[in-house]
Design a protein that fits this description.
It is found in: Cell membrane. This is Flagellar biosynthetic protein FliQ. It is a multi-pass membrane protein. The structure is a single chain. By secondary structure, this protein is mainly alpha-helical. It has one domain. It contains 2 helices and no strands. Helix 1 runs antiparallel to helix 2. It is elongated and about 65 Å long. About 0% of the residues are buried.
């Protein structure tokens, strides 16, 4: 395996990681920003509200996107196994 192939595999792995993590990160970040604005406007200074909502929303997002995560990881794993088989 040459340097270019190793860089290509690493790039593909990073793309898969971004595809998997982006929905949860984006929605949780937006929800946190909205909640922060709401707490600033209403003068509610309770940190546990924001943490609880983020945890539950992240779990819900992961539950909904679970099949897509599985497919992305499965496809990438199969691709890596094919490349390993070609090395011999």
């Amino acid at each position: 395996m040459g340097m270019e192939e190793a860089i290509g595999v690493t790039y593909e792995a990073l793309i898969v990681i971004i595809k998997i993590s982006f929905p949860a990160l984006a929605i949780t970040t937006a929800l946190g920003a909205i909640l922060t604005i709401f707490q600033s406007v209403t003068n509610i200074n309770e940190a546990s509200i924001q943490q609880d909502l983020k945890i539950f929303s992240t779990l819900a997002i992961l539950f909904v996107t679970g099949p897509a995560i599985y497919l992305a990881l499965r496809d990438y794993t199969l691709l890596i196994f094919e490349r390993i088989a070609m090395l011999h």
